[in-house]
Amino acid sequence: MGSLSIWHWLVVLLIVMLVFGTKKLRNIGEDLGGAVKGFKEGMREGSSEATKPTDPAQQISDGQTIEGEVKEKTKS
Q1: In terms of pLDDT, which residue wins out, 75 or 32?
Q2: Domain that holds residue 40
Q3: CA 64 from chain center: how many Å?
Q4: Given a cut of 80, is residue 68 above it in pLDDT?
């Protein structure tokens, strides 16, 4: 059986182009490229939100600020 040579891949590519047509393959390529681009942008936005500095004082829903300091670590 062995590995496939470049000629085998060219024959497969030719058959795929005959079955689907170049226009259909071009549209699939554009859709796939757009999806990858959108995924990369989403990953960049997610990482930039994760690295934003947060305010040490957390505000709860009624507007009160809770501040505190841990004196001793205990198991709960």
Answers
A1: 32
A2: 22-49
A3: 37
A4: no
Which of 45-49, 52-56, 68-72 shows the lowest per-residue confidence on average (mean pLDDT)?
52-56
DSSP assigned state of 52: S
Which residues, at least 6 apart from 51, have a Cβ–Cβ distance to it below 8 Å? none
Q: Is residue 76 part of a domain?
A: no
Which whole number is the average pLDDT over 29-50?
Answer: 87
DSSP at 76 = -
- pTM for the full model? 0.43
* Residue 26 covered by a domain: yes
Give CA–CA dist 34/29, Å, rounded. 9
Both tokens assigned to 44 = 């960049």
The reply to whether 68 falls in a domain is no
